[in-house]
């Protein structure tokens, strides 16, 4: 029951070259949604874009399937400049992408099978062939039993599966997801994330996800770009961005998954000297760090906080300790820890 054909190697790559986008709904006002965006989404990757509301995420994703055109710069999909296409060339290029939405955008009074078959019907595919293909894709997303139901009668998670089936029905090279899990509960979100990852793994489909939820990035994406005010603030492999967030906004997003610091009252009470926050990755997590510290350096260690988070196949641990003792021993302890953990920083009040 193979329903989708794997993307040929290196298909599905997206490049944003100095892309800006302004909207002028009337002559008096102009909104700049994107400012000089440079970004490369590798073919076959799961790429996350995170930002607060109004950062420009939806605009960015809508440029990829030609629903919007850049005001300046270029959006290249497999080397094709989407902004330069018109008419049937644009429609042909749009078939290389499928898109899913927060509100599913299904026709509630139309049966699931016909919702999924709709893009093919619009392409002129006959009813029988379109429905047969819709059934294949519904089987892939685990909804074959619902093909004859009305879309409006399904749960949110089932509706999003139908949305995914519809997005896949033309066998696209790129799947665009605009806040597709934002209306779903955590368990259903996890199931949709698993489905998106399996589409990427099994068929090499590039998945470009925009979201305001760092949890989604953590569980789904290989790389992440952080957006603010229409620009890219930072970009990199997800684990790197979690461990070394460079900008305040990225730190804020990381904090939603790995809560940082202590209540300010506690920091004030303890004083920030010798008050260290450490991040540990994978094998570092299981080291007997604190007992080594005490026995080797003869310092006192008060452990104030410890937690662990999984980022796909990686584990990030966080420890916050207060180390006290003679200054030179505390300094030696700090040097020892710096060697043993991926990151150590003073906790500031
Ligand atoms: N068609 C449009 N006409 C006018 N302004 C628009 C249009 N589309 C987007 N904008 C403006 O561009 C900016 C970026 O909007 P966009 O929807 O891309 O952000 P976002 O990060 O996706 O936010 P949200 O998650 O709230 O949708 C906002 O100021 C928005 O009001």
UniProtKB/TrEMBL annotation:
Keywords associated with the record: Amino-acid transport, ATP-binding, Cell membrane, Membrane, Nucleotide-binding, Translocase, Transport
Record-annotated ABC transporter domain positions: 14-254
Name of this chain's protein: Methionine ABC transporter ATP-binding protein
Entry keyword annotation includes Transport: yes
Annotated organism of origin: Herbiconiux gentiana
InterPro entries, per database record: AAA+_ATPase (IPR003593), ABC_transporter-like_ATP-bd (IPR003439), ABC_transporter-like_CS (IPR017871), ACT-like_dom_sf (IPR045865), MetN_ABC_transporter-like (IPR050086), NIL_domain (IPR018449), P-loop_NTPase (IPR027417)
Database matches in SMART domains: AAA (SM00382), NIL (SM00930)
PROSITE patterns on file: ABC_TRANSPORTER_1, ABC_TRANSPORTER_2
Pfam families found in the cross-reference section: ABC_tran, NIL
Lineage: Bacteria, Bacillati, Actinomycetota, Actinomycetes, Micrococcales
UniProt keyword annotation of rRNA processing present: no
Molecular-function GO terms, alphabetical: ATP binding
Signal peptide boundaries: none
Gene3D superfamilies linked to this entry: 3.30.70.260, P-loop containing nucleotide triphosphate hydrolases
